[in-house]
Design a protein that fits this description.
This protein is mainly alpha-helical. Helices cover 62% and strands 6% of the residues.
């Protein structure tokens, strides 16, 4: 965004219901570029899951900011107006306006990331629910800092030192993650005793780390507050069998695909479940199928198999999610 364009003036004109299309386009462009930067640089460790369903970072950036620009029937940008008017301290300078916009975008991107992670990975969703329950039970707080949701000990959190990132979480000792009830407190204690970093834990990175640990043991805790566990292999096998049965009944028996095609699709689904067990889906869902059809190009995949394969993938995730809820 050019320096000559005032973000404060644009926000004020939105609240006064007389924002020009040119000014709104400037604000949307700023939001898009900021969202893309957050997605590209602060969430590289999540790319396997985020890119599992053939969505680009550009599309994700657009989707993540879209809720900010929601309108009511009168055409007013209700979310922007409400956020601007309720913001404290009052937004009355260009610097505070820039800060306001950056914070809104950061929160919107982080919410979007959590939602797409939930949709893409049922195991992530299960662990996130358990961690969220533990946060609420113990009385920890969540804070959005530089586009990322962090767990902090209390409302009096003060940022002293660099914020831990996903790389830091990934390199933490494994023994911090074996006590389901005290995972968060143990990570806090480790940060205090062994580093000079801010005492804050990036939420999504923590969930991904816990997932990698429990998946390596092939047991998923029912809750971060008990010692019972669920066999990961059993969940994946049941979901896979249901998915394959659906394919056979709806497609093979109706001669929509051949037995040879079905066996290749089955192998692609098996490879997906193996990757889910090992930590996450590889970027580009179509690549799993193209591995089984070497002669197929992406255009042929889109025309012949994309709808079917994405449908089966959704069934697989749905079956996994339902088992995790039982």
């Amino acid at each position: 965004m050019k320096n000559s364009v005032s973000v404060l003036r644009i926000l004020q004109s939105i609240c006064e219901h007389n924002c020009s299309r040119t000014d709104m386009n400037h604000l949307i462009e700023l939001a898009y570029k900021t969202a893309y930067t957050y997605l590209n640089h602060r969430n590289k460790g999540l790319s396997k899951v985020l890119l599992a369903e053939d969505i680009t970072l550009q599309e994700m950036a657009i989707d993540s900011i879209a809720p900010l620009f929601a309108r009511n029937e009168a055409g007013d940008f209700v979310k922007l107006i409400k956020a601007f008017e309720n913001w404290t301290p009052k937004i009355d300078t260009e610097d505070t306006a820039q800060f306001f916009v950056n914070r809104l975008i950061a929160r919107s991107v982080d919410k979007y990331i959590s939602e797409i992670l939930r949709e893409s990975d049922p195991f992530f969703s299960k662990i996130l629910d358990s961690i969220t329950y533990l946060i609420d039970k113990v009385g920890y707080r969540k804070r959005n800092l530089i586009g990322t949701t962090y767990i902090v000990e209390n409302e009096n959190f003060m940022k002293t030192g660099a914020l831990p990132d996903s790389k830091f979480i990934n390199e933490l000792p494994l023994d911090l993650f074996y006590d389901n009830i005290n995972i968060i407190s143990k990570v806090f204690d480790y940060i205090k005793s062994n580093t000079d970093k801010a005492v804050a834990i990036p939420l999504n990175a923590l969930v991904m780390k816990i997932k990698s640990v429990v998946m390596s043991e092939h047991r998923l805790p029912d809750s971060c507050c008990n010692e019972q566990g669920t066999e990961v292999d059993s969940i994946l096998n049941k979901a896979l069998n249901t998915c394959i049965e659906k394919m056979n009944v709806s497609y093979v028996e109706k001669n929509k695909i051949s037995e040879i095609e079905a066996n290749r699709i089955k192998q692609a689904l098996i490879n997906i479940t193996n990757d889910l067990r090992d930590g996450g889906i590889n970027p580009g869902l179509h690549k799993y199928l193209l591995e089984q059809f070497p002669q197929l190009n992406f255009k042929d995949y889109e025309e012949k198999y994309q709808n079917l394969f994405e449908y089966l993938f959704k069934i697989l995730k749905k079956e996994i999610a339902e088992q995790l809820r039982t």
